[in-house]
Write a structure and sequence with these properties.
Domain HIT: 7-115
Organism: candidate division WWE3 bacterium RIFCSPHIGHO2_02_FULL_38_14
CATH class: Alpha Beta
Protein name: HIT domain-containing protein
Pfam families: DcpS_C
CATH topology: HIT family, subunit A
Strand content: 15-25%
CATH architecture: 2-Layer Sandwich
Active site: 104
Helix content: 25-40%
Length: 120
């Protein structure tokens, strides 16, 4: 876990706190500090990978995305979002605040999540 002054690396290294929902070999799932929905999770890569690299295909290993979405699935089932409905959001370019690869899982049964800016 690397990345100087990376919030997610600090969380992974227990230098900053976050409410952990679950952990796999490759990802942690945490609650978003600034939720945009009743349930707003972040699925964070345990390895510091820049979003610009993963989205540009630097990690063309299919198992990377399989493992990421397996972590999403486990969190969704654990919190019963599979019964309420949810969205998976991948912010890119001007829409992300942190380069460390992560995805948002938002839901919780209050209708559509607004299209406003989703941030950590």
């Amino acid at each position: 876990m690397g990345g100087s002054e990376c919030l997610f690396c600090d969380i992974l290294n227990n230098k900053k706190s976050a409410q952990r929902i679950l952990e796999t070999d490759d990802f942690i799932v945490i609650e978003n500090k600034y939720p945009k929905a009743p349930i707003h999770l972040l699925v964070v890569d345990k390895t510091h990978r820049e979003k610009s690299d993963t989205m540009a295909g630097a990690y063309q290993n299919e198992s990377y995305w399989d493992k990421l979405f397996q972590a999403v699935h486990e969190a969704v089932v654990k919190l019963n979002l599979d019964k309420m409905g949810y969205k998976v959001v991948i912010n890119e370019s001007k829409y992300y605040h942190y380069g460390h690869e992560h995805v948002h899982v938002v839901g919780g049964g209050l209708g559509e999540v607004d299209s406003g800016e989703i941030r950590l």
